Amino acid sequence: MKQLTLLLTLMFALSLPVGAFAMSHGGSGHDHGSKASKKSATDAHGTQGAHDQMVLVGVATVDGVKGEAHLNDVEAAMKRAGMEATHHLMIMFMDVKSGKPITEGRVAAKVTLPDGTSGDPVRLIGMDGHFGADIPLKQKGEYTFEVGTRLPDDKTRQFTFKHQLQ
Fold first, then answer.
1. CB–CB of 87/71 below 8 Å?
2. Residue range 92-97: average pLDDT?
3. What residues pair up with 91 in beta bridges, in sequence order?
4. 2-165 adopts what CATH topology?
């Protein structure tokens, strides 16, 4: 029952407007993985060094789709921009059978903080090969990211990633 409630909450969040997250990325975003993207990342977050702090959060496969989650520390750039976000959460999806990336669909993440509290699900926006959002992660300890998706095959999937923030 708890998982059904979470899935319904995430699906509701997927239908909400994009809001400030799209604005922080100009609506189109950028590819965090290529050398060419370092310049656009500098433009979007105000610092190239932030990309040197990208960490793998986890990899999970659910119903034929592989999800790979990363966190990028963007706190310094966001502070300069007057924003509270400290990290860019990005998730890439791949169809296991074909090996092709999945870049369309709806994705939202519910973040559980180290103190056990969680807020509303955050919609992750499609950005040149991944889905992402800038989020505030201000507590030290273990975070849980419950990621709900509705990808082009119209199936709902839930991925769970955990990350220890020092």
1. yes
2. 98
3. 69, 131
4. Immunoglobulin-like (2.60.40)
Whether the CB-CB separation of 62 and 158 falls below 8 Å is answered with: yes
Q: What is this structure's pTM?
A: 0.71
For 13-47, the pLDDT digits (tens) are 433 333 333 333 333 333 333 333 333 333 344 43
Q: How far apart are CA 1 and CA 92, in angstroms?
A: 28
CB proximity list for 79: less than 8 A, separation 6 or greater: none
C-beta separation of 131 from 30 below 8 A: no
Task: Report domain extents, the chain.
Answer: 2-165
Q: What angle do CA 49, 55, 22 make, to 5 degrees?
A: 70
Q: How far apart are CA 127 and CA 30, in angstroms?
A: 6
Q: Which residues pair with 164 in a beta bridge?
A: 142
- CA contacts within 13 A on the Cβ side of 39: 1
- φ/ψ of 13, rounded to 5, equals -65, -30
